[in-house]
Amino acid sequence: MSDADLEEIRQGRLAQLQQQQQGGPGGASSASGQDEQRKQQDAEARASILSQILQPEAADRLGRIRIVKESRATDVENRLIMLARSGQLRAKVTEEQLKELLGAVAENSERDRSAGGKIVVSRRKGGWDDDDDLLDQ
After folding, report:
1. What is the full DSSP assignment across 54-79?
2. What is the pLDDT of residues 112-121, one digit of tens each?
3. What are the residue ranges of helices labelled H in 24-129?
4. Which of 23, 58, 115, 126 is 20 to 30 A from 67, comparing alpha carbons?
C-alpha cells in the first residue's frame, strides 16, 4: 500500500471524527446514519485498495465469486488487503494467483467446517480383548 493510500484513509477517518464531534450527542437516527456512512466509507476504502492490488481479470473473477458466495469473496478480500498492508504483495494480483488464494481459503474453510462440530469415534474391530483370555482356561 502506498503512502497516498494511507493518507487518503487517514483523511477519511479524520473527516469522520470531526463530523462526530460536531454532531455531539445525537439521537438513534443520527447514530444509524453515522453507522451507514461509516460502512459506506469502509466499502469505498476496500474497493479502492482492491482496485490497486488486483488486475482487471482478477477483479472480475472476484466479482463473480461475490455473486455466488459473498462470504468466500469477503474472506479472499480480507486476505488480500492483509497481504497488501503487510507489504507481501510485490505486484498486482493476477487471475491465476487469485485462483490459488481461493483454493487456500476453500481448504481452510473446509478444514474448519470438518473439525468444528463433528466428533468421530473410530474403534478397533476384531482386536484383542482381555476377556478372551479367561475363556481359554
Report:
1. B-HHHHHHHHHHHHH-HHHHHHHHHH
2. 776 666 677 8
3. 28-53, 56-68, 70-85, 95-116
4. 115
In this structure, what C-alpha cell is assigned to residue 15?
473527516
Q: Are 94 and 57 in contact, with CB atoms under 8 Å apart?
A: yes
Q: How many other C-beta atoms are found inside a 10 Å radius of the C-beta of residue 29?
A: 8
Residue 38, helix vs strand vs coil:
helix
Write the DSSP symbol of residue 87: T
E-only strand ranges, 1-135 = none
- What Rg value do the Cα atoms of the chain yield, rounded? 25
Helix axes 95-116, 70-85, angle to 10 degrees: 120
CA distance 129 to 39: 63
> How far is Cα 24 from Cα 27, in angstroms, rounded to an integer?
10
pTM: 0.57
